[in-house]
Amino acid sequence: METTDLLKKVKKIEIKTRGLSQNIFAGQYHSAFKGRGMAFSEVREYQFGDDVRDIDWNVTARFHRPYVKVFEEERELTVMLLVDVSGSLDFGTTVAMKKEMVTEIAATIAFSAIQNNDKIGVIFFSDRIEKYIPPKKGRKHILYIIREMLDFHSESKLTNIDVAIEFMTKVMKRHSTVFLISDFYTRESFKDSIIIANKKHDVIAIQVYDQRAKELPNVGLLRVVDGETGQEMYVDTSDKRVRRAHTAYWIERQNVLQDTFAKGKVDNISVATHEDYVKKLMMLFSQRS
């Protein structure tokens, strides 16, 4: 991608996603993620709006004025984005490509994080770790992340979510909030690794998919290319049995995916490329508040 075109796209995404994080998600992000896995750190004087449940009564009695406990995450949270960059993300039949929606969702979360003075890092993965960007703060860091997401070319087209989760648990020693963003087009199970990861970290899964993965339109003979393997085939979409089999396969895969999330106690949402991801994120945040 040309540098000028890339910068224009980065600016466009920044304007949209920073606005969303400031106007819509400002309070919801904090209440949804700050309360998880908190570790007591210090005390400070009570301020208007503090939760009375955080009052440290021993210190309050000693100084004759109210003090509250400060927790580690209140001061700083570490957010990790695990972003799928495999070949299947380069697909979209309606409003947007899956890759474009993944980038916008990741950017919205990133801007929400820096508004709350949190660090944010990224792991790009396919069936290997393509790139690791350690957590840092600040707008420049986020713009760098967005630039990378827009212009990143993975070495592999395949997907292995297990590899990404295991790498994250190795590099992230402290409790982190982890957003796993993918279409979950993977043949390998990642149930064991996500169960282990969610015991130490707070893992949230966001599935981005295209409506055609769920339902095939009746458009006659359709040429289909697998974005990961490059395998090409022709599908007769006018055949009801073919369309039913396609939908049945989707339902079966989704059932396996939901079972994995349920076993790992992982909060999750699914967003189609023609849907409003803002509503889905708000739903996710409000469920956790």
Question: Could you please describe the fold and organization of this structure?
Answer:
The chain has 289 residues and is of the alpha/beta class. Helix content is 45%, strand content 22%. It has ten helices and ten strands. It has helices spanning 3-23, 26-33, 57-63, 72-75, 98-115, 139-151, 161-171, 191-200, 240-264, 277-288, and strands at 40-45, 67-71, 78-84, 119-125, 129-136, 177-182, 202-209, 221-225, 232-236, 267-272. The strands form three sheets. Strands 5-4-3-6-7-10 form a six-stranded mixed sheet, with helices on both faces. A hairpin with a 6-residue loop joins strand 8 and strand 9 (232-236). Helix 1 (3-23) packs across helix 5 (98-115). The chain is elongated. The model has no long low-confidence stretch (mean pLDDT 84).
In short:
This protein has helices spanning 3-23, 26-33, 57-63, 72-75, 98-115, 139-151, 161-171, 191-200, 240-264, 277-288, and strands at 40-45, 67-71, 78-84, 119-125, 129-136, 177-182, 202-209, 221-225, 232-236, 267-272.
Query: How big a fraction of the residues is strand?
Result: 15-25%
| Rg from Cα | 21 Å
Strand order within the widest beta sheet: 5-4-3-6-7-10
The main pleated sheet reads as: 6 strands, mixed
Number of separate helices? 10
Instruction: Give the termini separation.
Output: 40 Å
Q: Pairing-aware structural class of the strands and helices? A: alpha/beta
Report the uncertain regions: none
Helices and strands, in N-to-C order?
Answer: HHEHEHEHEEHHEHEEEHEH
| Helix fraction bin | 40-55%
Instruction: Summarize model confidence as the mean pLDDT.
Output: 84
Morphology: elongated
DSSP strand count: 10
